[in-house]
Each structure stands twice: as C-alpha cells, then as structure tokens.
Amino acid sequence: SGIETYVFASHLVDITSKLRGAQTFQGMLNTSMTDLVGEFGGGTNFAVSLEELHEHYGSSLSRRTVLFILSDAQTLEGEKAAVYLKKTRGKVREIIWLNTLPEKRWKDVKTIELFRPYCQMFECNTLGHLQDILKKSPGFV
Questions:
Q1: Could you tell me the residue range of the domain that residue 24 belongs to?
Q2: 20 to 30 A from 41, CA-CA: which of 64, 77, 97, 136?
Q3: What is the rounded (10 degree) CA torsion for 55, 94, 81, 133?
C-alpha cells in the first residue's frame, strides 16, 4: 500500500509487515505495543532513531514521502536529533509532527524550538485535534 510504519523509543523498529498481517485494529495496536515493550523506560532518543532511519531505510525516503511523527518532542541528544531531522527534511516532501503536549507547554521544551524549522508541528492529543489537522491540511495526505 506504500505505507511503512516504524515505532521507537530508543531504537527504530519496522512494524510494517506485522501491521499488514493484523486482522483487526486492536490486533494492530497489540502488535505495535508488543514490539515496544522492551524499550520503555530508557528515554526517547530521536537522534538514534533518525540515524537508524537513514542507515537502514534511507533509500525509501523520497520527495513523495510524508513522514508523520507522533511525539511530545522530549528527547535525549536534542541537538544531534535536530541535525538528523534537517537531513531527513531535505529528502522528504514533508514532516508532520503531531505533538502530544498542549501547545501552551511547548515553550518549556527546548527541543521543540530546535525541531520546528524542519517540520509542521501541530498539537495533537485527541482525535478531534487529528481531525482538525487533516481538515486544514489535506495536501499532505
């Protein structure tokens, strides 16, 4: 279908084939959570995950790629992550960042200001937020 799916906390995990094999939405959720269980608790590191994206899957990034990131943007190695995000932005059509933090808290998270030049960032912590984003910006889906 042309959609590839990855999850990460400290390392990138390709779950595309597992999601395609799931018979139900709940099955898809269970699959992705199963892949992540061993990674929680060590902190999020976008730098490592984006580096792995380029190293292992960089050939699948193109000007047709729209990369969606769902995260609060709090990460270890923020400056290094920003360098990789900039590199990623140069290879893809768009990066859409769905930020789970309320926008009023963004000023308290240093990495958000590092990342915003390379993506469109939206507050997104409800299905209503997601619906509003898709209505306002239909061109990236």
A1: 1-43
A2: 97
A3: -130
pLDDT in tens, 34-81: 555 455 556 788 899 899 989 998 898 999 888 888 889 999 899 999
- In this structure, the answer to whether residues 6 and 37 fall within a common structural domain is yes
Strand bridging mode 12-14 / 6-8: antiparallel
- What is the total residue count of the chain? 141
Q: What is the pTM of this model?
A: 0.80
| Residues 6+ positions from 11 with CB-CB distance below 8 Å | 39, 48, 49, 52
Domains in the chain: how many in total?
Answer: 2
